[in-house]
Fold this sequence. Notes:
Strand content: under 5%
Number of helices: 20
Mean pLDDT: 81
Largest sheet: none
Helix content: over 70%
Keywords: Membrane, Transmembrane, Transmembrane helix
Shape: flat
Radius of gyration: 41 Å
Pfam family, one: DUF2339
InterPro entries: DUF2339_TM
Amino acid sequence: xxxxxxxxxxxxxxxxxxxxxxxxxxxxxxxxxxxxxxxxxxxxxxxxxxxxxxxxxxxxxxxxxxxxxxxxxxxxxxxxxxxxxxxxxxxxxxxxxxxxxxxxxxxxxxxxxxxxxxxxxxxxxxxxxxxxxxxxxxxxxxxxxxxxxxxxxxxxxxxxxxxxxxxxxxxxxxxxxxxxxxxxxxxxxxxxxxxxxxxxxxxxxxxxxxxxxxxxxxxxxxxxxxxxxxxxxxxxxxxxxxxxxxxxxxxxxxxxxxxxxxxxxxxxxxxxxxxxxxxxxxxxxxxxxxxxxxxxxxxxxxxxxxxxxxxxxxxxxxxxxxxxxxxxxxxxxxxxxxxxxxxxxxxxxxxxxxxxxxxxxxxxxxxxxxxxxxxxxxxxxxxxxxxxxxxxxxxxxxxxxxxxxxxxxxxxxxxxxxxxxxxxxxxxxxxxxxxxxxxxxxxxxxxxxxxxxxxxxxxxxxxxxxxxxxxxxxxxxxxxxxxxxxxxxxxxxxxxxxxxxxxxxxxxxxxxxxxxxxxxxxxxxxxxxxxxxxxxxxxxxxxxxxxxxxxxxx
Length: 554
């Protein structure tokens, strides 16, 4: 009986557990639509299938293999063999001409017929869903048409300059139309290159430089707008480079007209500047070309104009870019453009001042402008502007130190002004770094700046002391310089004791030992015995006195 009771209790417990399991399963199913037992079983099977035997199995990511057949047969095959076909046609054409079968007029007609045939074949291939072959044929039609026009005008003299220019220009427009409808950047790049070449294909005895510069500038503007609208980045860069190349060739051909060519470069700079005011999808590329365009403008105007026009243009660019920068700072959507406009404004002012001022005062301007540009870089949080400011400042330091070290002859001199500006701007740099900070490197940079200004002041103090004592005896000069160094070290140590700055105290002690080394190595061989006694007694007394101050500190 006891065994039967245990079995009965166990069966009852199993029944209760089955009910609890059933309730738990039902609670995990969606409550808004109860499932039938059959549907519940299907759901459980699906769940086991999805999260069953291999839940952590990863699917392999297969990289698409390069379809060499497509790349060679559809992309490069028509391009290569179109070139082969053109060579064969040229040779056949030459053979027919040499045999006297084709006159000059017939050659031109055949060339234009071939151009039309290529256009017809290109559109047929486009309809047949062969876009790559279509682009090759349409691009070839432009090349054949321009070669035919060049032959008719330059070789056979069948058409005059205006007619040749008009035909070539229409071919360029045709290339742009092809590019627009087929959404093809290579066709647009071909049309751009062809458009730049048009003036060079005309046989004119008196070419107008004004017309050439105007035409090339308008062509650049047109293709730049087309590139921006169609998001053709390569076309945008190509149009920029081709204009510079064309203008450079014009300047070599038409000697004496460099001033007109420089205006074309200036127009390109202004157009690029205006383009950044509009919202485009290739804005970062427009901004990248803004600074190189400015640099090329500076070079062209420096080579082509005298100092007065150059300074006027630089001053105008500085004022314009400074105003634009101020306006951009007020517009959140334009703040990413501030580093570029601010950089150009800084360098425009730099070039204007460097070209206007005397060479002796250039370093003063560079130091002040470099410090100001660096401060602006921190204010607008622009790394590019910080780098530009630092480069300008370092250039000013190099030029200034080369000018002043060993050349200070009078207290009231340009060299004295350079020293004052150098020390003052170094102090400003310390203030800038302390205020804005540079992350985890702030402390190290401040230490470098403090040691830099300390060393610069030591050299400055030596130069000033030598100027003041230049009419004194040798003994007095050596005593004066050593006394100045000792006084400097005492001030540094005193500052360190007052502000509780250990590095300052150690620097002062090092300077005191440096003074002792100077006395031993430089002063002793050239001063009298009395001067030696004064130097050593003075140094010894001051060293012991300073040591006493350190005991007081402890």
